[in-house]
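Holo prediction. Input below; ligand is flavin-adenine dinucleotide.
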Amino acid sequence: MRFEKGKLIKDLTTLGIGGRAKLFATVHSEKELEEVFEKADSLSWFVIGSGSNVVGPDGGFDGLIIKININQFKNSRSGIIVGGGNNLLAFIKKINSLGYRGMEKMAGIPGTIAGAIYGNAGAYGQEIKDNITRVRIFDGKHFRWISRKVCEFGYRSSIFKKNKNWIIVGAEFKLEKGDPEKLEVASRETMRLRYKKYKRGILCPGSFFKNIVLGDLGSLSRKKLLSRIDQSKINHGKLPTGYLLEEVGAKGMSSGKIFVSEHHGNLIFNNGGGRAKDIKILAKKLKEKVFRKFGIMLEEEVQYL
Ligand SMILES: Cc1cc2nc3c(=O)[nH]c(=O)nc-3n(C[C@H](O)[C@H](O)[C@H](O)COP(=O)(O)OP(=O)(O)OC[C@H]3O[C@@H](n4cnc5c(N)ncnc54)[C@H](O)[C@@H]3O)c2cc1C
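Structure of the complex:
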């Protein structure tokens, strides 16, 4: 393990934005993670996976960025234990081939296992929380397992969004058995659909804002919202934010080199050379427009470093 100076954050994220980090380290084991903390304990730090949900700061980060690349995979009778740095798609392909079902429709969500746990990533009715039994964390001093219940998983949320000093180093999954061939077909089909929405190579962080969970709204806001929308857009208790954004004319809006896609209101991308400053300007405008028309304050799914 070695520290790298002045690494460009834009090269660590799929959005391609962010200045230089004072220090950067990739860790491949729990021992290396401990070493990093021993050597750099007074620095502020930020942990990253594949950077597929992160907006880096234009001015860089005066601290240490730690990339978790712990990649073990162990299949035992009690469950599958994996390192947090495993690529999610590679993991899904592996469990598909072993005949474990429950995550096949998450194929194609970019990122690592740890990143997916942090935001309880999901797609097409499956979420990473569904098959997790426990998560292994490092709190800066000690490693320990915490139960699924302690993780407080919800829609794109978990305890890790509140408790930022817990680093996810691994997880245990328990999955039902399925037919490997059918699972592989399901994953391939999911990925085909995904590539329609996200053109290969697009610089973006996936959906920018979270969808609206109607059950989480107060009764007045819900009533007001329901009176102003096409209710057939509601799917499993959630209203797609893309729909609200499209209703306020978001498609094609821009700030600097940052654009809202012409195809999807909740897809914000960097057209090359974009800045975090413009992301924030555009996000603020979009929030204001939606609030004015629907009385709903959108919440970012992306994470600002
Ligand atoms: C094209 C595209 C499509 C997408 N589609 C989906 C989708 O369908 N569904 C979905 O849910 N998401 C989607 N996303 C968003 C993104 O892929 C997920 O949020 C993903 O789980 C992030 O994983 P990551 O490893 O890249 O995390 P990063 O982006 O590196 O980090 C995300 C957050 O997790 C934290 N984090 C990362 N690793 C750790 C760790 N070891 N310990 C503690 N905290 C950590 C970071 O500090 C950061 O706050 C999409 C993104 C893109 C670019």
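The two ends are 23 Å apart (CA to CA). That is the main takeaway for now.
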